[in-house]
């Protein structure tokens, strides 16, 4: 091997020549480093990185090495550079040991270049080579320490985020469990009240001194509350089956527009009795593939609730509007909007925590409500005492909480999103988005 001479009388001159040599050999150093990493069987992700991705900030580390060899102030902080390199490798899904092995290969490559320089320039003082070796060792140790520190910080942040996510999930499950318990307790309270009215009506019917109109009033009251009890028990049984997973899907192709039109037509007598204008708007045909019966149950729950709580007054026309349309090639949407009293702000957000979110803002009830808000219905009013049974002729909201729980479960089964918007004194809008075809 040919040898070259270097002026060793002055160590700074030798260090300058060594620094110049390493700079000239930089491309070879980086290529040798990559080759060593690719040949390491413990490193499996190197080939997936481009040259720029693999080198990342290590050329800056070599700049810092040159500045230290020449005893110049560093323009770049070694620790910051090392941490940034660690962050880059983290984002590339490299493990900590992979990064440490890579840096160890770079250290060995630099040592190899230092030995080669000693062979090419044999008259260079040994102390100069030892001094540069110490610079290499120190800088690479700082690089390793910085990368390890960054990995440690990222792992602690990741662990904290996981713990927070798990805690949020636990808290949400506890809250949902409490909400479910509240619904069931309210339903129990309503059932107890209805049974109380039934018992009182049955007892009063035994009075032989009742006039025929009074007797008929108590019979009507008895019949009405028996119907309420039957409806609530049926809803509770439906909810129980849904939660137990006993409602398998029966997927079929059918015309959703035809189904909605039929349901609106069947509800027209109820709307007419309550002086409500019930309108339906949408394309005449909309072929979908889903569970027809479960879709019908969703529409029935929401439509009957809208008719139940929307009232006409001399000052205000009562309207319930049902509409449907296609959204792109994969989804369709139907909405039920009423002109009722709306829902109170205190109930906002409960149902939304249990349903899949909608990606884009779609509010239509007001500019101050940029996104749909999911809400639960008003708190159920107390059942009147037997002495005030005449008040039971007013519409009640018993079972609505169970009804929305059923809607929620059915939406989950059908892979649907439910948005609810409400504005006090203006009304409530339920909007459901569903896939045109079931997802695989």
TrEMBL record:
Residue span(s) of domain Histidine kinase: 186-438
Pfam families listed in its UniProt record: HATPase_c
Top-level class of the enzyme under EC nomenclature: transferase
Protein name, UniProt field: histidine kinase
GO MF annotations, alphabetized: ATP binding; phosphorelay response regulator activity; phosphorelay sensor kinase activity; protein kinase activator activity
Record bears the keyword Nucleotide-binding: yes
Annotated SUPFAM superfamilies: ATPase domain of HSP90 chaperone/DNA topoisomerase II/histidine kinase, Homodimeric domain of signal transducing histidine kinase
Catalytic reaction equation(s): ATP + protein L-histidine = ADP + protein N-phospho-L-histidine
EC number from the UniProt entry: 2.7.13.3
Organism: Spirosoma pollinicola
Gene Ontology terms describing biological process: osmosensory signaling via phosphorelay pathway
UniProt keywords, alphabetically: ATP-binding, Kinase, Nucleotide-binding, Phosphoprotein, Transferase, Two-component regulatory system
């Amino acid at each position: 091997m040919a040898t070259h001479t270097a002026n060793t009388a002055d160590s700074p001159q030798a260090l300058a020549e060594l620094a110049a040599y390493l700079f000239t050999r930089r491309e070879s150093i980086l290529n040798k480093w990559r080759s060593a990493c690719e040949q390491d069987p413990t490193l499996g992700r190197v080939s997936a990185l481009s040259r720029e991705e693999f080198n990342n900030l290590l050329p800056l580390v070599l700049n810092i090495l040159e500045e230290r060899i020449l005893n110049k102030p560093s323009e770049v902080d070694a620790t910051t550079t090392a941490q940034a390199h660690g962050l880059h490798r983290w984002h590339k899904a490299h493990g900590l040991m992979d990064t440490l092995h890579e840096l160890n290969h770079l250290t060995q490559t630099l040592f190899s270049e230092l030995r080669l320089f000693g062979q090419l320039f044999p008259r260079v003082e040994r102390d100069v080579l030892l001094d540069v070796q110490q610079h290499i060792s120190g800088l690479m140790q700082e690089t390793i320490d910085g990368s390890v520190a960054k990995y440690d910080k990222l792992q602690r942040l990741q662990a904290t985020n996981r713990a927070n996510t798990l805690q949020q999930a636990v808290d949400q499950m506890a809250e949902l469990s409490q909400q479910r318990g509240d619904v069931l307790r309210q339903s129990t309270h309503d059932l107890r009240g209805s049974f109380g009215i039934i018992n009182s009506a049955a007892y009063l019917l035994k009075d032989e001194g009742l006039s025929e109109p009074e007797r008929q009033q108590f019979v009507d009251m008895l019949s009405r509350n028996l119907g309420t009890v039957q409806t609530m028990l049926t809803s509770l049984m439906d909810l129980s089956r849904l939660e137990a997973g006993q409602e398998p899907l029966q997927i079929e192709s059918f015309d959703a527009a035809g189904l909605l039109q039929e349901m609106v037509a069947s509800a027209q007598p109820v709307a007419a009795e309550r002086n409500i204008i019930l309108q339906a708007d949408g394309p005449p045909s909309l072929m979908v593939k889903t569970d027809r019966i479960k879709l019908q149950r969703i529409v029935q729950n929401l439509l009957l609730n809208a008719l139940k709580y929307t009232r006409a007054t001399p000052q205000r026309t009562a309207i319930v509007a049902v509409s449907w349309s296609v959204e792109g090639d994969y989804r369709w949407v139907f909405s039920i909007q009423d002109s009722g009293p709306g829902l109170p702000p205190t109930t906002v957000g409960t149902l939304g925590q249990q349903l899949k979110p909608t990606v884009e803002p779609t509010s239509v009830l007001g500019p101050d409500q940029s996104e749909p808000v999911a809400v639960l219905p008003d708190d159920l009013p107390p059942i009147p005492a037997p002495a005030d049974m005449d008040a039971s002729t007013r519409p009640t909201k018993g079972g609505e909480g169970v009804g929305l729980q059923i809607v929620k479960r059915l939406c989950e089964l059908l892979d649907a999103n439910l948005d609810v918007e409400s504005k006090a004194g203006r009304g409530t809008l339920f909007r459901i988005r569903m896939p045109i075809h079931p997802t695989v």
